[in-house]
Amino acid sequence: MKVLVIGSGGREHTLVWKIAQSPRVRRVFCAPGNPGIGRSAECLALPVTPPFSEIVEFARREQIALAVVGPEDPLAEGIVDAFEQAGLRIFGPSRLAAQMEASKKFAKAIMREGRVPQAAYAEFTSLEPARKYIAHCALPCVIKFNDLAKGKGVSIHSDRAEAEAKLADIFEKRVFGDPSNGVVIEEFLEGEEASVLAFVDGRTVLPMEAAQDHKAIFDGDRGPNTGGMGAYCPAPVVDTAMAERVRREILEPTVAALARRGIVYKGVLYAGLMIGKDGPRVLEFNCRFGDPEVQAVLPRLENDVVDVMDAVVDGRLSDMELRWNNQHAICVVAASAGYPGDYAKGKPIKGLDEAGKEALIFHAGTAWKDGQIVTNGGRVLGVTALGDTLAEAQQKAYAALGKIHFDGIYYRRDIGYRALGRGK
Ligand code: AMP
Ligand code: GLY
What we know:
By secondary structure, the chain is an alpha+beta fold. Helix content is 29%, strand content 27%.
């Protein structure tokens, strides 16, 4: 069969790498892809923005048996609806279902309907009422722009004046664009974060092994948030009993609440969780695989991922069981100096082949230039290593990273520190 992957980052490289291992798959295409993806897939310079007519036409002409969507933007813009209307098979949630990520208010309402544990919150669509609320609410408080904001729409404030300034940025300076869908202001949750991604076929929920992301740019979780600087799997904060609670108290009631509204959620549902004293609570939902979480999760999956994705599309997940190897996986992200702020592009990357002998090198922001692979994004590479212990995986990942060079390379030196520090 032929498979088409949509996207161009480290997540999509990981998906292509795993899909290409399926004995059922003859050819893999990726739109638009990147130089790393180009090693196992044919990259296509086709637009993946509405109305999706060119990519749909390509899939029809090539008789693509399965399309798989990586990023949230095309999902929120209805790529799944466009493929399904053309009678094509595609893995991912519909435009409506993708509101779980694309609208904070929508996700909060679904959680309330499903009695899913979350942070207490209030909604505002204009500056003045939000400002009044900030004057009296408990601190710290968390301000969340309702719409997609490339991971930058969330800020935590311990200071009222600073929170007010943030509201003015959102409503008056429109730093995240049109503010008419407003903001959610929520209670600050304490605990340890974990990401639980699950395959969902509309009814059945099949959780993957839990992972932990590292969102802050600097060691020790300091500095501004990024898209994610590294991840490891499994995450001991989600032990077997906690995983069972997450399925029963969070994932299943969420999918059931969507179904009661007539929304069939298919694809991956990503629960960003705070594991606190009273158990798990939801920080956010995403409508897709996490990046870099997937770079530490999929290398541990023993199933043919195409079988699992097929079962999602066909609504047969209840027949499926996920099998995991006993290894620990860790992914460290190599970024461009300056990220998540401004950074340079076009810096030649050396040592990829050498490092690739010791670890999996997933390309996130790379490009070809004058016959060389160069940097082309804030997050440039994800380096994943596996080991019998997390310490061994960590040591291997950093050894491989040591072989990679580009001007301004930056990576955190402490990925996995929470798990490694347990019991110490
Ligand atoms: P989100 O994009 O909603 O996951 O938020 C980004 C990050 O902000 C999360 O990974 C958390 O570290 C933090 N965060 C979001 N909501 C809360 C909350 N209610 N309490 C504490 N931290 C939060
Ligand atoms: N690593 C966080 C995300 O994928 O949203």
